[in-house]
Amino acid sequence: MKLSNRISTLTGDGDDGWALLYRARALKAAGTEIIDLTIGEHDIRTDPSILAAMNESAKGGHTGYASVPGTKPLRDAVASRVSARTGVPTTRDNVLITPGGQSALFAAHHACCDEGDTAAYIEPYYATYPGTIRTVGAIPRAVPVQADNGFQPTATDLAAARGARSLLINTPNNPTGVIYTRQTIETISQTVLENDMWLISDEVYDTQIWRGEHLSPRAIDAMAARTLVVGSMSKSHAMTGSRIGWVIADAPVIEHLRDLATHTTYGVAGFIQDAAHFALTDDPELERRVGAPFERRRKIAMDILDTQNTVRLIPSDGAMYLMLDIRGTGLSGDSFANTLLDHHNIAVMPGESFGQAAAGHIRVAMTVDDDALAEALRTLCAFAAGLLPEQ
Fold first, then answer.
1. Cis before residue 124, ω within 30 degrees of 0?
2. What is the pLDDT of residues 109-154, one digit of tens each?
3. What is the pLDDT of residues 242-295, one digit of tens each?
4. DSSP secondary structure letter of residue 209
5. DSSP at 323
6. Could you give the CA distance from residue 161 to residue 234 in angstroms, rounded to a whole number?
7. Distance of alpha carbon 140 from alpha carbon 116, whole angstroms
8. Alpha-carbon distance 381 to 389, whole Å?
9. C-beta of residue 170 within 8 angstroms of C-beta of residue 108
10. Span 146-189, pLDDT tens digits
11. How far apart, in whole angstroms, are the C-alpha atoms of residue 147 and residue 145?
């Protein structure tokens, strides 16, 4: 029997972008000690207080079917958080709770795109974006942005999105660590308005701001009605395995997304929602503590990278990643990352995993302890310097 075209072509050319990660994990499973800087998984785990709240809720009986759009207390807490952070009035009617940010991306594209529509996304991109678009029968279209402009989309770049039904952006950005400036957000908004598009804004790293500020496009005039914001507890509270996120949109959009959830996920476990509510309301400092190691490691990395001139750091103002320009070595990101793994047991992600706009770059996840990260970066820089042609 033949599988459906949609399920068998989700990854397009068959490459999901994670080949190096799989190779590093296979080496680790075989007993090789690997410094793994590939994936955005905290090296700390969910705070014990959140787990205690989850356990208490489960033991208290909140293990049956939960409200599909999300419990009222959690939707209220998310709405309050969004209102405070963006200045845009938001109520529970603007919130759908989802099983993580990935599910929210899936739902948002279902809301915006019909089968055969074109759905655009900024490149470099998080590796699941094109496949997520294909899940709804839409046609993915990359909108490449330039490394030499700090990966900030310009009006010229965004012209490639014309004719699309939706545009997906991500700020603070994975993989680059770039935060879009106000000018960039205003340019994106103008493009969306002029071309009558939906905007899907992935803001799962909105608590990890190391320099500058995050501006949600939903706060731009006339944009709230055509913007769907994706959020998550995964990065802000180290709740990656709990699978808890949300979509923020106008109330009529949320009503339709509620119908979609009824026919797909049927909501999120109540005890996980209760734990998320606890995390958002009990300790205002928790988000800062979760993000603090990455801010500290960014400074460690900058100090090390400042001592050499072979590897160039793309301005990394947010998130848990460093995007390093290694074009001076003459190698592609793929070749550099695979050779680094072979020779030094250090695993980083090739820029090409996130689209050709990031070719000649590598992404480093700051998700190991400070000393291990510093050791890996010094080794990486020395390795890069050794690749330079003799003068």
1. yes
2. 999 999 999 999 999 999 999 999 999 999 999 999 999 999 999 9
3. 999 999 999 999 999 999 999 999 999 999 999 999 999 999 899 999 999 999
4. B
5. E
6. 29
7. 10
8. 15
9. no
10. 999 999 999 999 999 999 999 999 999 999 999 999 999 999 99
11. 7
State which amino acid sits at residue 315: P
- Give buried/exposed letters for 163-184 (b at 16+ CB in 10 A, else e): ebbbbbbbbbbbbbbbbbbeeb
**Structural tokens at position 264:** 């797909």
Q: CB–CB of 273/66 below 8 Å?
A: yes
- Banded model confidence at residue 194, pLDDT cuts 50, 70, 90: very high
Q: Are 232 and 104 in contact (CB under 8 A)?
A: yes
Q: H-helix or E-strand containing 194?
A: helix 182-194
- Give 166's DSSP letter: E
Instruction: Please answer whether residues 214 and 254 qualify as being in contact, where contact means their C-beta atoms are separated by less than 8 angstroms.
Output: no
Q: Which two tokens stand for residue 384?
A: 């890069």
Can you tell me the distance from the alpha carbon of 246 to that of 94, in angstroms, rounded to the nearest whole number?
A: 10
* 174 dihedral zone (left: phi>0; alpha: psi -120 to 50; beta): beta
Phi, psi for residue 14 in degrees, rounded to 5: 95, -5
Token output for 386:
């050794």
Which amino acid appears at position 141 of this protein?
A: R
CATH of domain 61-281: 3.40.640.10
Backbone angles phi, psi at 207, to 5 degrees: -95, -10
| Architecture of the 5-45+286-386 domain | Alpha-Beta Complex (3.90)
Query: Token digits for 96?
Result: 């759908």
Asked whether 136 and 115 are in contact (CB, 8 A), the reply is yes
Give the burial class of 248: count Cβ atoms within 10 A of its Cβ; 0-12 exposed, 13-18 middle, 19 or more buried.
Answer: buried
- The answer to whether the predicted template modeling score (pTM) of the entire model surpasses 0.85 is yes
Q: How far apart are CA 93 and CA 108, in angstroms?
A: 16
Domain ranges within the chain, ordered by starting residue? 5-45+286-386, 61-281
